Amino acid sequence: MNDTTQELSSQESNGEIEDKVHDSIVAIQKKSSLAPRVGIILGSGLGDFTNHITQATSIPYCDIPFFPKLSAAGHAGELILGHFDQIPIVAMRGRSHLYEGHDPLWATYGVRVMKALGIDTLIVSNAAGGLNPRFAVGDVVLIDSHIDMMFRSGLTSNHSGIQVADMGIAQRLGKTYDESLIVATLKAAKESRIAISRGTYLATLGPTYETRAEYRAFRMLGADMVGMSTVPETILAAAMKLRVLAFSVITNVAAPDITTATSHDEVLVGAATAQAKLVTLLGNLFSQWSAPSA
Ligand code: HPA
User: Fold this and answer.
1) Which of 36, 94, 154, 283 could link 104 by a cystine bridge, Cβ 3.0 to 4.6 Å?
2) What's the pTM value of the predicted model, to 2 decimals?
3) What is the rounded distance in angstroms from the CA atom of residue 28 to the CA atom of residue 38?
4) What is the distance in A from the centroid of ligand 1 to the CA of 72?
């Protein structure tokens, strides 16, 4: 019998991955018959969003075969199915990171499971350091492009479960972030009187926060914020033809010329400030979708 806690690796065949995803969704569907339309991945310190999910069924990751277990502080590790503003959703409270030593196939497993549950849209959030000098702690920024300095998308594996030879993928990944969703979110933000910007997210492998020299270099590369997640998930999601919307919440200002180093506590406090904004913003966005004319 399969060990359901064993990590997926790039050695896995497409069929093996599909079988595991199938086992995962069978376990989930035993607990909830909801067919979610939208998947949400909640980053560091943003998990309280799940308090706003109604008729919720919460399933700890450890009760879902093959689902990655978490180790980073500030990540609870549960899947929540329910409704947010009448839209059926599935939320991942906590995610796996590549810096925990995981294979990209494993770190992005939740995206495959949510896709198999039926989502057509994925919303990803993360905590990030603000490189753009206009950003302040607590700001919410829409990711409209990224710089992948992880260099480990997971799609390069022969066994990624994705037909990389399908050139449509390369084209789709050039515009990973769905422009119509960005425009709708900017509109929702305006209506909710929440100031948001859009910008480029640079992903590093971590787990270390940047040196001052790195912050300066990343700014010169054109990045507006820096973090250690999201890109493996959004690349996989776009390759799987999901519509992708991604947010950073600015938890610390990565000013190259101040001498204090970034700490994980600072990141969690910054995320708490932004959490309320995110709930209002998504509430407004979702009510556009659930409105009769949508
Ligand atoms: N750097 C990398 N990851 C982060 C940061 C940062 O400054 N803040 C939150 N996540």
Assistant:
1) 154
2) 0.90
3) 16
4) 14
pLDDT digits (tens, 9 = 90+) for 239-289: 888 999 999 999 888 776 666 666 677 777 777 778 888 888 888 888 887
Burial class, 230, CB count within 10 angstroms (exposed 0-12 / middle 13-18 / buried 19+): buried
Other C-beta atoms lying within 10 Å of the C-beta of residue 87? 17
- The answer to whether the CB of 209 is under 6 A from ligand 1 is yes
Q: Residue 214 carries which side chain, given as an amino acid letter?
A: E
* Active-site option among 22, 52, 159, 264: 264
How far is residue 88's CA from residue 36's CA, in Å, rounded to a whole number?
A: 5
Q: What confidence tens digit (pLDDT) does each residue in 73-127 have?
A: 545 689 999 999 889 999 999 888 888 888 888 889 999 999 999 999 999 999 8
- Contact between 38 and 82 under an 8 Å Cβ cutoff? The reply is no
- From 32, 157, 229, 248, the catalytic residue: 229
For ligand 1, whether the C-beta of 130 sits within 6 Å is no
Nearest to 20 by CA among 3, 37, 32, 39: 3
Q: If you ran DSSP here, which 8-state letter would residue 260 be given? A: P
Query: Does the CB atom of residue 266 touch ligand 1 within 6 A?
Result: no
Single out the catalytic residue among 24, 61, 96, 97. Answer: 97
Q: Which two structure tokens, joined as six digits, stand for 7? A: 């990590």
DSSP class of residue 262 equals P
